[in-house]
Amino acid sequence: MPRGINFSxxxxxxxxxxKRTALAVHRNRVKxxxxxAWRLHKxxxxxxxxxxxxxxxxxxxxxxxxxxxxxxxxxxxxxxxILSKHFPTIPRxxxx
Length: 96
Known about the structure:
41% of the residues lie in helices and 12% in strands. It is α+β, with helices and mostly antiparallel strands. Helix 1 runs parallel beside helix 2 (69-84).
């Protein structure tokens, strides 16, 4: 999807199904952890996305209830690594 000058190269969404994590407090914690792991490591994928494209990602949590940050961080990093391989390594032109 093409993006405008003021838009991020990657947009994300997070879903934590009730079936695996019954309590809303725990679902929200998992979402916060995923967002934090993404915030810390998104630059790895940003550099791989072409300047004229916008990537939309959606993380669906399917792991064990109440994971620690390290587990989620490893999963996010693995996802970023896999996705980065699908983009050619072209120097990025920032319009900012």
